[in-house]
Amino acid sequence: MSPVVDIQFNPATTAWPELRERALAAETAGYGAVWAFDHLAGDSLRGGTMLEAFTLLGALAASTATIELGTMVANVHHRTPALLAVAAASLEAIADRPVHLGLGAGAAPDSRWSAEMRAIGQPVPATVAERHARVTSTIDVLDRMFDPRRDESLSTFPLPRRRPSVLLGINSVALAELAGRRADGVNVAWDHPRRDALLDAAVAARGSRSGFLLTTWTRWAPALLDPEHPTRRAMAHLDRVVLVVPGDIDAAAIATPVAR
User: Fold this and answer.
1) pLDDT number for residue 248
2) Which residue, 124, 227, 239, 254, has most beta carbons within 10 Å?
3) Secondary structure (3-state) at 122
4) Which CA distances in Å does 99 have to 33, 60, 77, 199?
C-alpha cells in the first residue's frame, strides 16, 4: 500500500489567487487533501503577511469540489476550544466532505514560533504540562460539541455531519501517548530523529481503538509523486503524507498527476 498524498501551501508567501489556483491543480492531480498552517503573522513562515486558517479553508472549500481539507496544525492557544469546534464544524458544513482537524500544543514562550503571540500580548503557557493540558481540554470540548447525543444546551451549535478526524502534531513521547489515548491520529515530521519511536508510542497508547491515522509531512518534491521512489516506499506503512510546497512552485508543477 502507498499512503494518500496530500499537499500544503504557504499563505505567508503565496497570495490568495495563487493559493486557489494551486488547490484546484492539486484536486485535478489527485492529491487527497489540502492542509492549512495556523499562524497569525507572516514572519512565522518567512513571509510578509498571513491568511487565517479557517477563513482560508472555507474559501478553498467553496472553490473546490472533492479534495479534503485540514489544519496542520491548529494551535490550541489561538482560539477557545468552543470556537475551534464551531470553526471546524462550519468548515465541514461548507465543504460537505471530510475535514481533518490537526491540533498543535503550541511552542515554548522563548521560541521564534511563539513570537507572533507575544507581539499581540497573547499569553503563552510556560510549561509543557500546561500546553498538553490545553490539548486535553480542547479534545474534551470537541468530544462534547461533536457528539450527536450532546446536551440540549448545545443543540443549536453547528454539528458536523461527518465528524472531523482529530490528529495531533507530535514531537514528544508524552504528546504521542496523549494522541493515542484521545485523538484519531498523529502527524510527525518525516525527518524527525525520533519519528519511528513517536509513532510506536502513539500506536501502543491507542490499544484496541481502530481507525487511527498515522501521517507524516515532508517537503514537496516531484520525485515523491512516484510511489516507487525509495522515500515513498519507506512511507508505505503510513496512511497519509503531507507534501509542504515551497513558495516558488507554481500550479503547473502541482498539476503533475499523483501516482498511487
Assistant:
1) 79
2) 254
3) coil
4) 9, 12, 20, 22
CB 242 within 8 A of CB 32: no
Cell readout for 150 is: 450532546
Residue 216, all three cell numbers: 507524516
Instruction: Write down the H helix ranges in 146-194.
Output: 173-182
Spatial distance between the Cα atoms of 128 and 110, rounded to a whole number of angstroms: 13
Q: Compute mean pLDDT per 10 residues along the chain, 260 residues long, and list them.
A: 93 96 97 98 95 98 98 97 98 98 95 92 94 98 98 98 98 98 98 98 94 97 93 96 90 87
Q: Is 65 helix (H, G, I), strand (E, B) or coil?
A: coil
This prediction has a pTM of 0.96
User: Domain 4-254 in CATH: superfamily?
Assistant: Luciferase-like domain (3.20.20.30)
DSSP 256: S
Report helix, strand or coil for 246.
coil
Can you say whether the dihedral through the CA atoms of 176, 178, 181, 182 is positive or negative? negative
Contacts of 111 (CB under 8 A, 6+ apart): none
Q: Which of 80, 83, 135, 143 is nearest to 104 (CA)?
A: 135
CA distance 130 to 53: 24
